[in-house]
Design brief:
This protein is α+β, with helices and mostly antiparallel strands. 23% of the residues lie in helices and 40% in strands. The chain is built from three helices and six strands. The protein has a six-stranded mixed β-sheet with strand order 2-1-6-5-4-3. Strand 1 and strand 2 form a beta hairpin. The longest helix has 17 residues, at 11-27. It starts with 10 loop residues before the first helix and ends in a 26-residue tail after the last strand. The relative contact order is 0.20. The model has no long low-confidence stretch (mean pLDDT 98). It holds the Pfam family DUF1348. This is Nuclear transport factor 2 family protein. It comes from Mesorhizobium album.
């Protein structure tokens, strides 16, 4: 299975890859998201270590059951050959109605078919007031005309 764009990455293809990942995660479909990763993909997400698509699906189901009204923006930080580093921020609320903005960085490594074989994520959560939210598009894909992280001052 091939997942273009493929390495080696350019500025354009790294940005495409990041946007495809953002779109998939904003769709909040764990099975669909898992198909962007190798069957034996290895993750570190905060302090959790995940291996393989089945664990990715289980992790994402738990994540999106807890992080309600999830909206994410990713931005390429740098790239080289088969690796991309992104920074991101997402907003979500818990089941008590408290809002958060989570900031983080991810390091991605891809195989020759464009599947991610390694994902290393560092993330911090910041409580925000609902009035401080910056992401107001309907759930799902971020509209093309919605500002990115840099434009939002994040």
């Amino acid at each position: 299975m091939s997942r273009p764009p493929l390495p080696p990455f350019t500025a354009e293809t790294a940005a495409q890859k990041a946007r495809l990942a953002e779109d998939a995660w904003n769709g909040r479909d764990p099975e669909r998201v898992s198909l962007a990763y190798t069957e034996d993909s290895v993750w570190r997400n905060r302090a959790e270590f995940i291996s393989g698509r089945d664990e990715i699906v289980a992790f994402l189901k738990r994540k999106w059951a807890r992080e309600l009204d999830y909206r994410l923006i990713k931005e390429v930080w740098t790239w080289n050959d088969n690796r991309i580093a992104v920074r991101f921020a997402y907003e979500w609320r818990d089941d008590s109605g408290h809002w958060f903005r989570s900031y983080g960085n991810e390091n991605w490594e891809f195989d020759a078919d464009g599947l991610m074989r390694r994902r290393i994520a560092s993330i911090n959560d910041m409580p925000i007031a609902e009035s401080e939210r910056k992401y107001h598009w309907p759930l799902g894909r971020r509209p093309d005309d919605h500002p990115g992280l840099s434009e939002l001052g994040l």
